[in-house]
Amino acid sequence: MRGPKPPVVKLVPRLQDLLEKISRRQTAAQHLVKRGRIILNASQELNNTQIAKVLKIDPNTVRTWRDRWLAAEERLCNGLKAGLSDRELLALIEDVLADAPRSGTPDTFEPEQLVQIVAVACENPQLSGREISHWTPRELADEVIKRKVVLSISPRHVGRVLDEADLKPHMSRYWLNNKRSKDPETFDAEVKQVCTHYLSAFDLHQAGIRLVSTDEKSGIQALERKHPTRPMIPGKVELREYEYIRHGTLCLFGNLEVATGQIIRPSLGPTRTEEDFVAHIRQTIALDPQAGWVFIVDQLNTHQSEGLVRLVAELCQIETDLGLKGKSGILESMKTRQAFLTDDSHRIRFVFTPIHTSWLNQIEIWFSILVRKLLKRASFSSIDELRQRILNFIDYFNKTMAKPFKWTYTGRPLAA
Q1: Are 299 and 293 a contacting pair, CB within 8 Å?
Q2: Which of 8, 222, 252, 392 is close enough to 217 for a disulfide, judged by CB 3.0 to 4.6 Å?
Q3: Is the residue at 325 inside a domain?
Q4: Range(s) of the domain holding residue 68
Q5: Predicted pLDDT at 1
Q6: Are 374 and 394 in contact (CB under 8 A)?
Q7: Residues 380, 222: contact at Cβ < 8 Å?
Q8: For 197-233, what is each residue's pLDDT tens digit?
Q9: How many Å apart are CA 97 and CA 299, to the nearest integer?
């Protein structure tokens, strides 16, 4: 004999949309996702047994959360009437679907003791004579007992205290001291200068000035898979051999012509010395010796070298005394050399991106294309094969994919 029909769950469209959002959200806790799906199925007039069969759970679980939702309907309706935002309604729904408070042994520690445990967790362990880089629950439990903060505490309990305080000593992230904060106006001016050149690239090209984004991609490895790659077939993805043989590395000096999006006069060699970069710039300019050239580069020391200054002076027929490196004149320091290389009156000049903003250099975008489309999955039996495959890819890219990047960034804040 069938039991009584379960009470019907009626969902207004807004609550249904929010429940569907919870049930689809990949970052949501699984218990919230499952309970949200129970309520959504209940609104389709399915009974508890049918829902349990669909979700592969116990019918009693379905009954519990149907009843819990129905008991909270008044709270949810009041929230809708009060004009709560979607964020506030989501929080309310998640509260309804959360676990009920569980009974258990009351906390054996006073608030003052918990605060002291948290304070110790925020200290450097080396201050306590512990030669470790970060606290573990076991080390922390031992330390608070040693300091007589508590008589005893288990590492597991310490872990719960850290969770409640949202402390994660086992985790860390890199950060970079923001150098622009020392002089934000200078930083913004340098960023704007680079972006202005990108936006005027076509006009410069029409005027006979070639704007080129230049940088090196060093340490490109010639890796050969020990066994051939197995091609994909229906139902199976491509299989690449895990083990490989190293055949050495190459450094690629790349030039992206901003106005056309093409890669021009690449250089490939084993090193990236000052001499290598000067030779690369020389061969690039030889492509169009009478044109004006503007190179966008980062502030690597080889991009502000004595050899580069002498090359620009030679090709621009500048007869000024350049001085001595480290002692006097234009060659005295990196600062004086950069001032010379950025001089607007020179036919060949350089524009430098601010420190730690290589992402402003368009050639970096192309390097990522090279990695994704060639280097990441290829196998190279020698340095020579690696070199030829890169050159072949550049030819293919120039014929089939090259076009100017649509540059929308013009400085803080991001504007597209």
Answers
A1: no
A2: 252
A3: no
A4: 13-96
A5: 44
A6: no
A7: yes
A8: 999 999 999 999 999 999 999 999 999 999 999 999 9
A9: 55
**Contacts of 99 by beta carbon, 8 Å cutoff, 6+ apart:** 31
- Model pTM greater than 0.70? no
In this structure, are 47 and 73 located in the same domain?
Answer: yes
Distance set, CA 38 to CA 71, 72, 73, 75, 136 (Å): 15, 15, 15, 19, 39
**Do 149 and 198 fall within a single domain?**
no
CB-CB neighbours of 76 under 10 Å:
20
Q: Quick check: 304 and 341 in contact, CB under 8 A? A: yes
Phi and psi of 244, rounded to 5°? Answer: -145, 165
- Per the document, the length of the chain is 416
- pLDDT at site 248: 94
SS3 content of the chain, % helix, strand, coil (to 5): 45, 15, 40
Mind listing the pLDDT tens digit for each residue in 402-415?
999 999 888 766 54
Q: Specify whether 154 is located in the same domain as 193.
A: no
The SS3 call for residue 312 is helix
The CATH number of the domain holding residue 226 is: 3.30.420
Mean pLDDT of 188-199: 92
